[in-house]
Design goal:
The complex is a heterodimer of chains A (258) and B (171). Chain A is mainly alpha-helical. Chain A has helices at 11-31, 40-68, 74-79, 90-93, 99-120, 126-154, 158-171, 183-190, 201-214, 237-252. With 171 residues, chain B is of the alpha/beta class. In chain B, helix 1 packs antiparallel against helix 3 (56-69). Classes of the chains: A mainly alpha (258), B alpha/beta (171). Chain A binds chain B through residues 41-42, 44-45, 48-56, 58-59, 114, 118, 126-127, 129-131, 133-138, 140-141, 144-145, 210-211, 214, and chain B through 49, 51-55, 81-87, 115, 118-119, 124, 144-149, 151, 155, 169, 171.
């Protein structure tokens, strides 16, 4: 069933969808690497990471449905919402590009999600705290995986360095949005449920800069900054295509089950 | 009225094998958290996932329902609880022994894991303690990939006997 627009849901449901959509959409992107990664071990690694993220998303989307109390399930939220009702950050929807670009996206997101979950593990919302507390050690593995590849490619051959730097440059404009906060988030911060994203910025830069430095890479000195808007349902061109692929089976065969 | 014995139900649930690691039970792995039987024979069982996205959870829940029903339960509810988060510390000594016997290097204690304290890590240097080869016992092993055939395992290779093996990652 389709339901009310995301923006009209209770605040905690909206927040759960923000967290859940980040995880769901990145899982979908990583799933595209199945049978396409440069080596078998990476195929397995990227899809394992996708599976971890999907596990988080399922609990969070189900939670949003329970708070809404209108009967929507995790599947309804994943497959029957339209683009403007998804509230993930734009970073996670960016196309995979080459392997280096995917790794840059992984590094940026895992560093952010790790810092966020570390704090959300103490959330006053028990489900959000449960997901964060459970996932935090998994996210450590995700970050470590991305950091390892960033070093290896950045400090590798001339070609791998060039492509890793290009991946960093390509994704950098979408970093800023991770740390934007808004009224909804602030209201939930006051209730002890959410984390103020802007308070993660400094530590994130510290973590990521140290990896880039070891990898002989650098954050671009001057870069345009994407205007963001993912949390308000504003997305980039690539997102519609992702949704079309993710949702078409469910929408074409309503009620189909495995 | 059929009397449902709590111990019998508990034993039936505890004996359910993990679908992806059939040499160990859900009790060995610390997945089984709680078994409650009401006087009317209704059974409520709580399990916890090893990893957030572990695809075995649904199969485990179905296997538990099946196992418990044959012990006279009138209704079975299997609940999944995330908190407190599962850790490899909950794998029993018996579970570790069975894993090693099946050629899967059991997890090291979390405190000594190579990833221990990663959240608080201060520098780029990470000390890696490799698990011993479960085939030949050599400590000369090398990480091939942190992500293996299931979410909970990493892939290693032994430098002494040359065999690849799975390692249950400390979490």
């Amino acid at each position: 069933m389709s339901g009310a627009p995301t923006a009209q849901l209770p605040p905690v449901a909206q927040y759960a969808l923000r967290l859940g959509d980040d995880a769901l959409i990145l899982a979908q992107r990583l799933g595209e690497w199945a049978a396409n990664a440069p080596e078998l071990e990476e195929d397995v690694a990227l899809t394992n990471i996708a599976l971890d993220l999907l596990g988080q998303a399922r609990v969070l989307l189900t939670h949003a449905g329970k708070i809404e109390a209108a009967g929507r399930t995790e599947d309804d939220f994943a497959f029957l919402r339209d683009e403007r009702d998804f509230v993930n950050v734009q970073l996670v929807e960016q196309p995979n590009g080459d392997f280096a670009q995917t790794i840059a996206r992984q590094l940026f997101f895992a560093a952010y999600q790790g810092l966020l979950y570390e704090r959300l593990a103490d959330s006053a919302d028990p489900t959000i705290a449960g997901v964060a507390g459970k996932a935090i050690k998994e996210v450590d593995y995700h970050e470590d995986h991305a950091a390892g590849w960033t070093r290896r490619l950045g400090d590798g051959t001339e070609e791998s360095h060039r492509r890793m730097q290009a991946g960093v440059d390509r994704l950098w404009p979408y970093v800023d949005e991770l740390f934007l906060t808004d009224q909804l988030e602030q209201e939930l911060v006051a209730e002890g449920i959410a984390v103020d994203g802007s308070t993660l910025r400094k530590e994130w830069h510290k973590r990521v800069s140290s990896v880039l430095e070891e990898a002989t890479l650098a954050a671009p000195e001057s870069s345009w900054i994407a205007p963001g808007g993912g949390r308000r349902g504003v997305h980039t061109e690539a997102f519609g295509y992702l949704l079309a692929e993710m949702q078409h089976l469910h929408r074409s065969h309503q009620g189909a089950r495995w | 009225m059929v009397l449902v014995n709590e111990d019998v139900v508990r034993q039936a649930a505890a004996a359910v094998p993990d679908p992806e690691l059939p040499m160990v039970t859900i009790e060995d792995l610390g997945i089984l958290r709680d078994v409650m039987v009401s006087p009317g024979g209704r059974v409520a069982i709580t399990i916890t996932p090893t990893y957030s996205g572990c695809p075995a959870m649904e199969a485990i829940a179905a296997d538990i329902r099946e196992a418990v029903k044959t012990r006279g339960a009138t209704a079975v509810v299997v609940r999944t609880e995330l908190a407190p988060a599962w850790t490899t510390e909950w794998i029993t000594a018996e579970g570790r022994r069975k894993l090693a016997e099946a050629g899967i290097a059991p997890p090291e204690p979390v405190g000594e894991a190579s990833r221990s304290g990663v959240r608080a890590r201060s520098g780029p240097v990470q000390v890696t303690i490799s698990p011993r080869c479960p085939q030949c016992g050599s400590p000369r092993t090398r990480l091939v990939s942190r992500f293996g055939s299931t979410a909970c395992k990493a892939l290693y290779a032994c430098g002494a006997c040359g065999e690849p093996f799975d390692h249950f990652k400390a979490l």
